[in-house]
Design brief:
Length: 216
């Protein structure tokens, strides 16, 4: 093989190797794709939405462990996070942060209270496509839509808990149809994989208008 051809092949191999290592680094420490598998976050996120998750904002995850290091900051109320399911860390869940460490979280007749203050909830009207009623919740100035079933099953009504240190209380926006902290408890900070950023794809085609929408 001519020297020049061998040199070109080597350069291509090196470039591909570097690209693969860079992609692996980015996926491990920076961003990751996540697909919405259930309806627990309707109407904010729909089944078939594909998200980009920022893995660096809450700290870098040490590979093959459930530990994080160098956190830029901790999650805030109202943010949507992806985390390892506490009862089975091999599974990823996505919910909204409702309570941060030290918060007292209460539910009274389906109304959410944080540290004794009722969280504003404005009724927007029926959502027949979801067999529910649509509301807008204002969580520390973070406005987002939530659903309540009509009629509604009883799910975690009338309770009071205090969020422990390094733990978070998370709920789905589809409030009566969400498997969340009201059922299985708190999310450990080190189980949090990242913050949901943007919908980069959605299926079926009827949901394509959602592509490139920021999550909020």
């Amino acid at each position: 093989m001519p020297v020049w051809r061998g040199s070109v092949v080597r350069e291509y191999v090196e470039a591909i190797g570097i690209a693969l290592l860079l992609a692996l680094f980015i996926r491990t420490f920076m961003i990751q794709a996540f697909k919405i598998p259930s309806g627990s976050m309707i109407p904010t996120l729909l089944i078939g939405d594909h998200l980009i998750v920022n893995k660096a904002v809450y700290g870098f995850e040490i590979p093959f462990t459930y530990r994080k290091f160098l956190p830029y900051r901790t999650p805030k109320r109202g943010e949507i996070i992806v985390f390892r399911y506490p009862n089975d860390p091999t599974k990823d869940y996505i919910k909204r942060v409702v309570g941060i460490p030290g918060d007292r979280i209460e539910m009274r007749q389906k109304r959410l209270y944080i540290n004794g203050e009722e969280i504003p909830l404005e009724r927007l009207g029926p959502a027949p496509e979801f067999d529910a009623v649509l509301y807008e919740e204002n969580l520390d100035g973070h406005k987002h839509k939530v659903l309540f079933s009509n009629p509604s099953p009883s799910l975690g009504d009338n309770f009071s808990v205090v969020v422990p240190e390094n733990k978070y209380f998370c709920m789905g926006d589809n409030r009566d149809r969400s498997n969340d902290s009201r059922i299985w408890g708190f999310v450990d900070f080190h189980f949090i994989r990242g913050k949901a950023m943007i919908i980069y794809f959605s299926w079926p085609p009827t949901q394509w208008t959602r592509i490139f929408h920021l999550t909020r």
